[in-house]
Known about the structure:
The protein folds into 2 domains: 88 residues, ATPase, nucleotide binding domain (Nucleotidyltransferase, domain 5); 52 residues, no CATH class. The protein has 4 helices and 7 strands; from the N terminus they run βββαβαβαββα. It is α/β, with parallel strands linked by helices. The longest helix has 15 residues.
Amino acid sequence: MDVLIGDIGNTITKICLIENKSFKVKKVAYFESEKILIKNFLRRKLKNIFKNKEINKFALFSSVVPQYQLILKKVLKKFFKIKLKEIKENNIKKIVKINIKNKRQVGSDRIANAVGVYRSYKLNCIVLTFPVVFINLINWRIQK
Length: 144
């Protein structure tokens, strides 16, 4: 069964269909985030991504544009019966320790990067993200 994941950015939205167990990428779509506002754009785009695929009933996204996320959430629920979850909605404390004063300032894209690096390498790492530069230090000893 495949899972829909993605990132809604200020400029670009990235959507990816992955195989649930192997994390193998099945399909990828990139488009300008503002196109989410165009009537039926998302529905057509998602229909094309889902073509002949068995999709899990939830999708996991990170987003810095709540307005676009809300539209995507409604389209997924109404037309595809898929529940959208935002990464920060989950209990992050069980997955990764965030050592920062105001945890609400940490974007879900940064959390996803930290979890991915920790899961893949289990080493101390520095994660750089662009175009806005953030530097995350992943200390695997703290995560245990």
